[in-house]
Amino acid sequence: MNNDIKKPVHSLPNSLIAQARYDSDPANTYEHENDPAIDPKQVPQSLRQSVEQSLTQYFDELDGQQPSALYDLFMQQVEAPLFECVMEHTQDNQSKAAALLGLNRGTLRKKLKQYDLL
């Protein structure tokens, strides 16, 4: 694994980069994941694991029915809280939020309106 990552000026904190590296390595599983005394709902998960778990549960609950427009449903469920949290983090500063998200300000405003956040 190459540890010499060239980071852009506006980069993720080193702790998040390290966590992403750790999460992407299949050898790094939670050491107590098969322990029946540990409630898996209480164990912190990576974002990817949370998404996989949610989608698996969603498909299980469909009980054989075919979903439609899954991408749109997923994006609505993920984007709205993403924009809410980022706007809160930036104290509603749209320029800072757009930079943080890697979007131009016009796209951010469009998304904020779409989710009634503006």
Q: What is the H/E order?
A: HHHHH
Beta strand % = under 5%
Give the helix proportion (percent range): 55-70%
Query: How many strands?
Result: 0
- Which stretches are poorly predicted, pLDDT < 50 over at least 5 residues? 1-13
Mean pLDDT: 76
Going by helix content, strand content and strand pairing, the class is mainly alpha
- N-to-C CA distance: 43 Å
| Radius of gyration based on Cα positions | 18 Å
Largest sheet: none
Per DSSP, the total helix count is 5
Instruction: Label the overall shape.
Output: elongated
What's the short version?
The chain has 118 residues and is mainly alpha-helical. The protein has helices at 14-24, 47-62, 70-89, 94-101, 105-114.
